[in-house]
Amino acid sequence: TDLIALSILPVSYYNWYLDFKPGIKPLKFIKPVILGICCFSFIATSLQSKTESYNWKSNYKFVVETHYENAQNELRFYMSKDTNSISYSIELPEKNATINTKINISKTPEGFTEVMLDSILQFRLENMGSLFRNRYDEEDLKYLKDISQQEVEQLFEEQIRNKFLKK
């Protein structure tokens, strides 16, 4: 939605300086009021999320019995050009949160996919408050702060395996 709002800005800028003579003369304060409302609504939809670091090193590995080429297409990750590592997010929709990780993917001699969780970086909990007040679900925040490395590793494997079982 923010991208749609941004796409309107050039049109608004052009309209601001347009020498248009309407039949009814609007009041001079109408344009600044509309601009103020648009800016407020744009900012109000961009709420700050709660982020805290884990920085856990992990060497958790497992094999997914799918061909390596299929795994590359199925998993939603992106390769960092700077560090040559793969960033992957463990999604927790019931908690309205994600856990950011770095992973490595390799091909086994049988042609299957070996997935290794290299490191668990941080969690991100979405804000449920308003523009003037940050509010996070306290139970979800406590869960994310108290979660163990082994629990994150299990969530990681479960999410990866579920992506391939849905096919």
Give the CA-based shape: elongated
Question: Quaternary state, please?
Answer: single chain
Please write the string of helix (H) and strand (E) elements.
HHEHEEEEHH
Helix content: 25-40%
Q: Could you name the ranges where pLDDT drops below 50 across 5 or more consecutive residues?
A: none
The radius of gyration over CA amounts to 23 Å
Class of secondary structure makeup: alpha+beta
Give the biggest sheet. 5 strands, antiparallel
Number of DSSP strands? 5
Proportion of residues in extended strands: 25-35%
Mean of residue pLDDT? 80
Rounded to the nearest angstrom, the distance between the terminal CA atoms is 31 Å
In terms of topology, how is this protein built?
Elements: H1 2-16, H2 30-44, E1 50-67, H3 68-74, E2 78-79, E3 86-92, E4 97-107, E5 112-125, H4 138-146, H5 149-165
Antiparallel strand pairs: 1-5, 2-3, 3-4, 4-5
